């Protein structure tokens, strides 16, 4: 196989809080007016990404990893995770507030669900005026206070309400109570997991009049009741990989591209590029590939030398 940059068919998710911005902001061909998520790269059971272009078109991400584990994942990633693709990449459109929720850590997720935990980061791509997120507690709390606040519907008074703007980044370790607020388009990078404990859903109902399931008791052991610092500051030096997040699960850099840069990789990890503004090209020894805002591309680890060119803002993600 000649390795090349891989793109995948987006997996669209209907959500009670979803809207149409994945079409109007990211130009995606969404099938309804309530699409909340576009899963760009996934091996979650039942939602496995399928290659959309080139020689491997129609093959699933799992298929190509099984064929070429070292070449796709990278030698270090394959040694650590085996055939597992350890990350999940999404774009989200929050027309309404998402539920207030929390994700378990690796140990709890393994014990309860045989899954990874869900450490994640958000890059705010677009924000309506006065949009905000909810992240963590205002002051150190405890399980008793949390339960009492749910009973008297005062949970929001315990939680941090943070106004956001385009370009803001938030890093959420497992256990952080959180919610994406209405009016936001977000690029999300996370561990491969779909385990979410919903604490509160603003008492809303779906089109059939039903409320969504809550997981109040399951969340008790998962929540970090201490205050946390989630916002990440980062530099924006042009044509450089500016460090944003560096954690055991992924490294994310921000590249303000204006011109051309050369990229060299070690072959130890795959690299993913998410185009969050503008247009750019990837040039390999074989060919050129063009990308636009809202595109996500997986660079197999075997592609260890290439060029980026154009005028764009790009998130660069790999495992170090």
From TrEMBL:
Binding site for Zn(2+): 103, 120, 178
Domain Mannose-6-phosphate isomerase cupin residue range list: 242-318
SUPFAM superfamilies found in the cross-reference section: RmlC-like cupins
GO molecular function: mannose-6-phosphate isomerase activity; zinc ion binding
InterPro entries according to UniProt: Carb_Metab_Reg_Kinase/Isom, Man6P_isomerase_Firm_short, MPI_cupin_dom, PMI_typeI_cat, RmlC-like_jellyroll, RmlC_Cupin_sf
Residues the record marks as active site: 198
Free-text cofactor note: Binds 1 zinc ion per subunit.
Domain Phosphomannose isomerase type I catalytic: 8-114
Domain of life: Bacteria
Pfam families, A to Z: MPI_cupin_dom (PF21621), PMI_typeI_cat (PF20511)
UniProt keyword list: Isomerase, Metal-binding, Zinc
Any single biological process term in GO: carbohydrate metabolic process
Cofactor: Zn(2+)
Protein name, UniProt field: Phosphohexomutase
